[in-house]
Each structure stands twice: as C-alpha cells, then as structure tokens.
Design brief:
The protein is of the alpha/beta class and 302 residues long. The protein is built from 11 helices and 12 strands. Helices cover 39% and strands 17% of the residues. The protein binds NADP nicotinamide-adenine-dinucleotide phosphate. Belongs to the NmrA-type oxidoreductase family. Isoflavone reductase subfamily.
C-alpha cells in the first residue's frame, strides 16, 4: 500500500455503515482499531483491537495515540461527541479525520425541517476545517453517499418496495432520478479516501454506485422475484410532505422517514441527486464500482 496511512481507528465500527467500512478497511490491508463507549453493547469482528473509553478529549487522545487516521461513523446519538474526537485526533497527531457525513454533504438541499438535525453536524465539519487550516499536519475528509440504497431498500418499505410482501408504492410517476451508494460502495469510499490522502484532503467527496428511479427498481424487483406478483400502489410525494410536516409541527415521530422519502422522489426537485453523472462524482477516484438496479436489488433481497 503506497498510502502513508496504515493504522486506522474507527468510531462506530459495529454500526450500519461502520460494519462494511471496517470490513473493507481490513480487506484492503489497513490495521483497524475500534474505539467504543464504556457502556456500548456493540459486538466487533474477531481479531480487531477494541479500545473502550469515555469520550473526553483527554481519554480520546490516549485512545488515538499512534493512529494515522480516524473514521467517525457514529449514529445520530454520537454526533455531539464529534468535536471532542476531532480535538483528540489533532492532539494525538492523527493525520486524517473522516468526519461523520454519510448523507448529502455541505451542499445538501434538504427540506428546512432537517436544519436542526444538520446544525451540530455542520458545526463539527466547520471545526475540522478550522483545525486543518491552522495545522498542516492535520486534515479532514467528508464522505457523502446520497441514499444508502441496498441497506435502505431492505430496511424501509416506505422507500416503495416491501420485499417480503411484494408490495410496491410508486410515488407520482416513478421517474424521479436519485443517486445511491451501496454498503460495498460506502466501504470502498473510505478505503479510497485513505488510499489517496493527498487527493482527498480537506474536502467532501461524493460517493455513488448508481443513478436510478423507482420505475427501474420495480422492473428489477419484478425480474428478480419470478413467481411473485407485485401489487402496485400509487402515492404522491406532495401528500407525504404534508404528512411529514404535520407530524414535525406537532412533535410526533415518523416525520423524518416521511420527508426523507418524499425529498428523494419529489418530481422536478432533484434533491435526491448527489452527482448527476459518474464524472460529477468521485467514484472513479475512490475506486467505487458502478452498479445496475438489478445488482442493487439482488443485494436488497439477499
Ligand atoms: N444517507 C442516509 O440516508 C443515511 C441513513 C442512515 C444513516 N446515515 C448517517 O450515517 C452515519 C452512521 O449511521 P449508522 O446508521 O451507521 O449509525 P448506527 O448504526 O445507528 O450507530 C453507529 C454507532 O454509533 C455509536 N453510538 C451510538 N450512540 C452513541 C452515542 N450516544 N455516543 C457515541 N457513539 C454512539 C455506536 O457505537 P459503539 O457502540 O461502538 O459506541 C453505534 O454502533 C450517521 O451520520 C447517520 O446519520 C445516513
């Protein structure tokens, strides 16, 4: 491996995205250490060192000693610890800190209801940027992925495909294009960043496995499930936005999923497109494979 980055610590190693990232880093030959909370119940892959610690700057600096890079892929509950992780990484001499994005990046055009969730993330990104500006030995990268497509299709029937009951909900006319990155692509994105630290320093990269739409996915689901008749229902993103907004305004849960799905499929808005073409993405730089709807659907059904 030509990269000067060899030892990588990961926060959130057993999470939804931390799991494929950890596997990809190990497969690519990086020496991976998981850093986890004292109270964590997470289960880590056999054979990787695990450091259990409280998330203060002092303790995290000790935990990160000797690491070349750190990846922050904690879930929403951990975002508040990210500034301490960044301070500790710099203090420990970590060269690259991958900030927690795995969403739509700094240019996200998400609906305003998401502003409050986005604010502490952006504060941590700004903090990393300021640290990198002041200290040339420290750098950061953000990895935007758009829709985590194979994981999301399997997990959220509200995305329009109930894979156990073979029911599809097509929003509007089903032609709104959006970009997705598979779990494999997410893992490869992190390997790509740490393999090419110069090209990926102090910026957000755009991962992408494909550009697709609901109608293409429906065809792929139908051809991947012979013998099953898909029931096709129709819904409108406008109604979904109204539902989500009403829940948000009255403090009810469920608004996030409503609005995430609506903004992915809303016609004419393009909010679900991170990179309209492969060339506009960093997929080639990072070594992420282009995938077809058929390949993605196979993974969602596995
Ligand atoms: N683009 C999208 O549509 C999309 C979808 C889902 C997620 N995401 C984003 O992707 C990132 C990773 O999400 P994920 O779903 O992989 O996360 P996750 O599986 O929910 O959690 C990952 C890890 O976060 C750590 N964690 C949880 N609560 C914490 C706390 N209070 N303090 C510190 N650490 C905590 C835990 O690690 P330990 O137990 O080891 O401490 C957990 O295993 C997040 O930024 C999330 O918002 C984006």
């Amino acid at each position: 491996m030509a990269s000067p980055i060899k030892k990588v610590a990961i926060f959130g190693a057993a999470g939804n995205f931390g799991t494929p990232i950890t596997a990809a880093l190990i497969a690519a030959g990086f020496a991976v250490t998981a850093i986890t909370r004292e109270e964590s119940q997470s289960v880590f892959p056999d054979g990787i060192p695990v450091i259990r610690t409280t998330y203060t700057v002092e303790r995290l600096t000790k935990a990160l000693a000797g690491q070349d890079a750190a990846v922050c892929v904690v879930g929403p509950g951990g975002i508040g610890s990210q500034i301490a992780m960044i301070d500790a990484a710099e203090a420990a001499g970590v060269k690259r800190f991958i900030v927690d994005d795995f969403g739509w990046g700094p240019e996200s055009r998400s609906l305003p209801e998401f502003d409050a969730i986005g604010a502490p993330r952006k504060a941590a990104w700004d903090h990393a940027r300021a640290k990198a500006k002041a200290n040339s030995a420290f750098s950061f990268t953000g990895v935007s992925i758009g829709n985590p497509i194979d994981w999301a299709l399997k997990r959220f029937p509200a995305m329009g495909f109930d894979v156990t009951r073979h029911i599809s909900i097509i929003y509007d006319d089903g032609t709104a294009m959006f970009t997705g990155t598979t779990l494999e692509g997410i893992g490869q994105a992190i390997v790509g960043v740490l393999s090419k630290p110069d090209e990926t320093a102090n910026l957000f990269v755009k991962a992408r496995s494909l550009l697709t739409c609901q109608n293409d996915l429906l065809l792929a689901f139908q051809s991947a499930t012979p013998g099953h008749e898909w029931e096709i229902q129709h819904a409108r993103t406008k109604a979904l936005i109204e539902q989500g907004r009403a829940k948000h305004a009255s403090g009810q849960g469920g608004w996030i999923l409503n609005l995430v799905v609506a903004q992915l499929f809303e016609p004419g808005e393009g909010r679900g497109i991170l990179a309209a073409t492969r060339e506009e993405s960093d997929a080639d730089l990072l070594g992420i494979q282009e995938e077809t709807p058929e390949e993605v659907v196979k993974k969602a059904l596995a």
